Amino acid sequence: MKKQLCSTRGSYIDADFWTAVRNGVADDGGLIIPADWGSDVCSSDLTRQIDVETLPLSYPDIAQAVLACFADDLDTQSLKALIHQAYDGRFDAEDVVRLSPLGEDFLLELYHGPTAAFKDIALSLLPLFLGEASRRQKQPKKTLILTATSGDTGKAALEGFKNRPDCELLVFYPDHLVSEIQQRQMVSSEGRNVGVCAIRGNFDDAQSAVKRCFADPQLRAALNACQLELSSANSINIGRLVPQIVYYFWAYRQLRQRGVLTAGQTLDFSVPTGNFGDILAGYYAKQMGLPVGKLIVASNANNVLTEFFTTGRYNRRRPFMKTMSPSMDILISSNLERLLAHETGLDGQQVAAYMDQLQKQGEYQIDSTLLHRLQKQFACGDCTDEQASETIRQVYAESGQVLDPHTAVGVHVLRQLRSEGFEKNPCVVLATASCYKFSKDVYEALFGPADMDEWTAMEQLNKRTGISIPAPLQGLRDKPVRHTDQIEKDAILDYVRQKAQAMSHD
Question: pLDDT (tens digit, 9 = 90+) per residue, 155-174?
């Protein structure tokens, strides 16, 4: 049975999951969402409910159950094959991810994949989803995937899509606004079908430009002439978002198995987030039957989401802060649009008005009724670099665990809320990256200021903590730079057009 999809801007989509994955965004400029999750839909009407108490324990098996709720018309064995192809032998955790104690709470380690960041989990599956989508096309075209990255998505996409014959990939990252290690991961990427380009601007500039590419009819016509069609590896693509739902269910099943939770007991999650994708996956898990208490929106100094969930005002007109958690240095949280669509009862006109105000005026304000509904489901807080560094020190002193700066934000906000009387459900903090992707900041947080580069800091951090450097980061320093393109932030359309023309002549 084909599950109904719609745009956040209100239009219903006469297409299946595979077409949605291939298209990336809706024709009206909105994001594609399940139409059966509006706030005016009764739970009894939902078609994606999962009985969490009967779920198996292994990650691939849970992925099978979750993804089957979206992957229309794909038989069980074919879906199972995709999952095993994505994960078998590519992650150094026994079951793809790992759950470790953090005092009375827990860390969900999501960084044991090929690029040492949580984006690997979804971006190991998305290329296979796109391959299946292409196979179903009557007149298949090569897919041109455009991706904006604040640091981790780029390399995960480059790794997931490299050398695939059915697609080309272009990654855009903000120049000097990612860590040196993140940058080297990207610019050293191999693969005959991948390209990397720095833009002179921030992540919001890159993301907005990629969205303009999808909305530009002239570019689409030019790509069509080159036998290319656009898609995205960002979480604006529902195919990127859906695999992230899985690890919320996996964490719950693990804690049930360990006796930490009783049947039906609610579990909180603290999620370091900038673009609101990872935490939206938790919201989707809740819609599917997971007993989630509160989803904690943990922001760094770019605390636009903290203000929103506190006051109902979304205001991007603020100084952009470069922080030690660069993957969260975002002022336009794209996936928040999806949440607004669901919680307004799929009122596309209202959501479109919010997005128009955000684009033209730099802000919008939701009403008190909607704000109250959101506050019943979400808590929030923010964290400075100094607080993140202190949290890294504290956790290392307590347990010997070394957090990356993004995960430290999630831990700090949770502990801050606890100190203010926040309800004490068991809580899982999503650990989003290896500490070694931000070696110098982490080293200095633990041992004080040091006159050394990222690579020396990586070696010294390993020597002083004994924590192994992930295999994907070993030897990275010596890999040759293969991608050197740099453009102005408003030049992406022309750049994509030129690259597409070159691809058509290869």
Answer: 999 999 999 988 999 999 99
User: Whole-angstrom Cα distance, residue 417 to residue 271?
Assistant: 13
Does the predicted TM-score (pTM) go above 0.90?
A: yes
Q: Which domains, from first to last, does the chain contain?
A: 98-106+249-468 (3.40.50.1100)
Tokens matching residue 396: 């290392």
Q: Which amino acid is at 496?
A: V
In DSSP terms, 298 is beta-bridged to 272, 381
Give, as one character, the DSSP assignment of residue 468.
Answer: P
Question: What pLDDT is recorded for position 4?
Answer: 83
C-alpha to C-alpha distance for 143 and 146, rounded to whole angstroms: 10
Contacts of 176 (CB under 8 A, 6+ apart): none
CA dist 316 to 101, 331, 413, Å? Answer: 36, 5, 21
Other CB atoms within 10 Å distance of the CB of residue 360: 9
Question: Tens digits of per-residue pLDDT, 352-368?
Answer: 999 999 999 999 999 99
Answer for the pair 20, 13: CB distance below 8 angstroms, yes or no.
Answer: yes
Q: What is the dihedral of CA 20, 336, 332, 413, to 10 degrees?
A: -130
Region 31-44: what's the mean pLDDT?
Answer: 69
Paired tokens of 344: 């307004």
Catalytic residue among 2, 80, 119, 479: 119
pLDDT tens for each residue of 86-122: 999 999 999 999 999 999 999 999 999 999 999 999 9
Which residues, 6+ apart, have CB-to-CB distance to 346 below 8 Å? 6, 10, 35, 38, 40
Average pLDDT in the 50-57 region?
Answer: 95
CA–CA gap between residue 140 and residue 227 (Å, rounded): 9
pLDDT at res. 424:
80
CA–CA dist 386, 501 (Å, integer)? 47
Contact 166, 143 (CB under 8 A): yes
Q: Among residues 51, 90, 71, which one has the least CA distance to residue 253?
A: 51
**What percentage of the chain has pLDDT greater than the value 70?**
97
Q: Between the CA of residue 445 and those of 174, 329, 395, 461, 463, what are the distances in Å?
A: 25, 19, 11, 11, 16
Identify whether the C-beta of residue 48 lies closer than 8 Å to the C-beta of residue 288.
yes
Q: Which two tokens stand for residue 376?
A: 């019943």
Answer yes or no: are the C-beta atoms of 1 and 72 closer than 8 Å: yes
Contact 274, 301 (CB under 8 A): no
The per-residue pLDDT for range 118-129, each reduced to its tens digit, is: 999 999 999 999
User: What CA–CA distance (Å, rounded) separates 450 from 452?
Assistant: 6
Cα–Cα distance, 132 to 181 (Å, whole number): 33
Residues 6+ apart with CB under 8 A from 478: none
Q: 437 an active-site residue?
A: no
Report the candidate in 351, 391, 334, 451 with the shortest Cα–Cα distance to residue 9. Answer: 351
